[in-house]
Amino acid sequence: MAWTVDTAHTTVGFVARHMGLSKVRGQFKGFRGEIAGDPNDVTSARARFEVDLASVETGNADRDAHLKSADFFDVEKHPVMSFVSKSVRKDGDDYKVTGDLTIKDVTHEIELDYEHGGEGTDPYGNRKIGGTLTGTVKRGDWGLKWNVPLDGGGWLVSEKIALEIDFQVAETKEAVEEEAKAEAEVAG
User: Fold this and answer.
1) Is pLDDT above 60 for 182?
2) 136: nearest Cα among 157, 116, 117, 164
3) What is the pLDDT of residues 111-125, one digit of tens each?
4) Which residues, in sequence order, are CB contacts of 40 under 8 Å at separation 6+?
5) Contact (Cβ atoms closer than 8 angstroms) between residue 67 and residue 36
6) CB neighbour list of residue 59: distance below 8 Å, 6 or more residues apart
7) Cβ–Cβ under 8 Å, residues 133 and 103
8) Do 132 and 168 contact (CB within 8 A), yes or no?
């Protein structure tokens, strides 16, 4: 089965600590993705997700401009961040998703926690699946090393960045057509 990200019901967010004191939250507003697999077997899922880095929003225009600059994402040269899953395994009541995260042409394998939200049908008859992915990465691993040392020790921006993706995916039109065709062949 093929599923595509429902951008109206998905958020791609991150959290960084500022001066070790408070959490600064941000989101990416531009993204797309698809998942393939058996909806009755979460471990069969394989996903590809792309984020437009220029769509970053933190609630502060100056900070957003800095994140887009060569100090961080360098969106002029590297406009897209991607995640491609490799495997999904059961972990207690939830799951672990392993895949490759690419930022600024640097790829590292990461593991994310996945809480499966389940499956449902919206009021318009569209099948949806949803859940939440969370994890932590070290931004320096992708060359996002800009920082300022603080007088009392520590750094302006945390090295660890928390990721949180709440998503829904919708069954693609092609998958619905294939399923109808298969049911017609069985009936016919």
Assistant:
1) no
2) 164
3) 999 999 999 999 999
4) none
5) no
6) 25, 26
7) no
8) no
